[in-house]
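Async update (no meeting this week)

Hi team, since we skipped the sync, here's where things stand on the single-chain job. The sequence we agreed to prioritize is pasted below, unchanged from the tracker. I ran it this morning and attached the output directly underneath so nobody has to dig for it. Comments welcome in thread, and please keep replies under the output.
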Amino acid sequence: MALGCATLAIGLSLTLIGLVLMLGRIWDTISDPLIGAMSDRTQSRFGRRRPSGLIRVVPIGSTWIAHAHLISAGYLRADRSCAAADS
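Output:
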């Protein structure tokens, strides 16, 4: 039901949503070992993991802000249509 809810909220086809989810998994398969290797080789006074964690704050925060802007601008619906579709 979650994909059905996504089609209602975003207005995309199930095929396109499935493609986006698959591309995300492929990207993770490639990027996770690379990021892990970089993190293991990092030597700073803040530790091995903290610098990469601080760097991740910027894209995650900007994504949250962009999502809120898209909802307030009317590009995404934030109503209860998904709850109605689930029942």
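Quick observations from my side:
Helices lie at 2-10, 14-41, 50-73, 81-86.
The chain has four helices and no strands.
Reply here if anything looks off.
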